[in-house]
Design a protein that fits this description.
One of its GO terms (molecular function) is carboxylic acid transmembrane transporter activity. This protein has about 425 residues and is mainly α. The chain has one domain: MFS general substrate transporter like domains (Growth Hormone, Chain: A), CATH 1.20.1250. The longest helix has about 35 residues.
Length: about 425
């Protein structure tokens, strides 16, 4: 039986006082667990649709006779437009609700991923990929806010890290489908089929619409019109009280995502073109990296609750930079060493994200949480897109492996940005 002092969650459920690896999941309560399932599925399929491009990049470049710079631009336009999509989705989340905004973002990225498979030329593919970025940019921010508002301060880091781990699941699924599709079909058709399978997220929309609800506090504020003049307003997050937070959070997101997407975009190309691996061998090397990523997300979530948000991000920024340099300096023929290094590389470049959902949610009040989190995370993604583009430009003269060192520079920027932000571990969301 509960007492007046029994901790309760945003949905009214009693907070789980027991320990254990799944205490965070029990503590969410039934409605929170449904929200978690929707956000997890949305982010996993977001990852799947994103990786349809990097995995098919070599075949796409050959089909359209593209330079490395043009190939890199496909990834860059996705990330740049995602900055707009994230900001818009954040405002929508504050104005029409987290769940409705989640449905819009998932449907958008699914639709335009499929459209990419029909592209008759490079220009059309560039446009469709940019439009895919609108939904791609918004999904994480909306899903993370939805779950953060159900989670308790005690478990929020681990809960949001578990949502983040869906990225590794979607990535792994994409590599599996890539290995099958490119193993069975000619490359000129296989890359199109990869994009066609991006229709999978449309199935998730039906579940979210039928089963998921906003956390009661967020829904109540919207229904009552609380702080109507600033709710969902981008200008509100640039007012004096939040300006410093917005600037440094954007810089932090720029560094972390600049490093991550540089590696995500170019490592498949590096393995195929510079190391000379086949599709099946590349899939095996990526599987090791993905295993590390999944473990990294969950471990990072545990550490972000125990060490704090800032210390965890700083730790993995440093380790990620070291792993990038080590991975790209493995001598030719040392395949075993390259395979072994894939696990710590995937672990570190993913663990750094584990605290992001909780950290950004805790930096902003409820009325502008969607706008703040959507804007900072995705502006960081858009500006961070300069890093994979730079690698594409330099790859022809430096080689992909040599140019990938710029990912380490991005992680240094992330570490520096932490100096301008407060520690938020233990913060209760109003």
């Amino acid at each position: 039986m509960s007492t007046p002092h029994t901790p309760r969650l945003p949905g009214g459920e009693i907070q789980d006082q027991d320990g254990g690896a799944l205490a965070w999941l029990r503590a969410l309560g039934p409605r929170g667990r449904r929200a978690f399932a929707g956000a997890f599925g949305g982010y996993g399929l977001d990852s799947y649709d994103f990786y349809a491009l990097p995995l098919g990049a070599t075949a796409i470049a050959a089909y359209f006779n593209l330079s490395s710079g043009q190939t890199g631009m496909l990834a860059t336009v996705t990330l740049v437009v995602s900055a707009v999509g994230g900001a818009v989705a954040g405002v929508l989340a504050d104005r029409i609700g987290r769940v409705r905004a989640l449905v819009v973002t998932v449907a958008t990225y699914a639709l335009f991923t499929v459209a990419c498979g029909f592209a008759p030329d490079y220009g059309t593919l560039l446009v469709f990929r940019g439009l895919q970025g609108l939904g791609f940019g918004g999904e994480w921010a909306v899903g993370a806010i939805l779950v953060a508002e159900y989670a308790s301060a005690r478990h929020r880091g681990r809960t949001l890290a578990a949502v983040q781990s869906a990225w590794a699941v979607g990535w792994g699924l994409a590599v599996l489908v890539y290995t099958l599709v490119f193993g069975l079909l000619d490359d000129d058709l296989a890359w199109r089929v990869m994009f066609f399978t991006g229709a999978l997220p449309a199935l998730l929309v039906f579940y979210v619409r039928r089963s998921v609800q906003d956390a009661p506090e967020a829904a109540r504020r919207r229904a009552e019109g609380a702080e109507k003049t600033v709710t969902g307003s981008i200008t509100a997050i640039f007012r004096p009280a939040l300006l410093r937070t917005t600037l440094f959070a954007s810089l932090l997101a720029t560094g972390v995502q600049g490093g991550y997407y540089t590696l995500a975009t170019w490592i498949p190309n590096y393995l195929e073109d510079e190391r000379g691996y086949t599709v099946v061998t590349t899939g095996g090397f990526l599987a090791t990296q993905i295993s590390g990523a999944f473990a990294g997300y969950l471990t990072g979530g545990l550490l972000t609750d125990r060490l704090g948000r800032k210390r965890t991000i700083a730790l993995f920024a440093a380790l990620s930079a070291v792993c990038v340099v080590a991975y790209t300096r493995v001598p030719s023929g040392a395949d075993g060493l390259l395979l072994a290094l894939g696990f710590p590389l995937g672990f570190c470049m993913s663990a750094i994200f584990s605290g992001f959902g909780s950290f950004l949610a805790e930096l902003y009040p409820t009325a502008v949480r969607g706008a703040g989190q959507g804007f900072t995370y995705n502006v960081g993604r858009g500006v961070g897109a300069c890093f994979p583009a730079l690698v594409g430009v330099l790859a022809d003269s430096w080689g992909v492996g040599g140019a990938l060192v710029f990912a380490a520079l991005a992680y240094a920027i992330a570490a520096a940005a932490l100096t301008g932000l407060p520690e938020t571990r233990g913060t209760e969301l109003p």
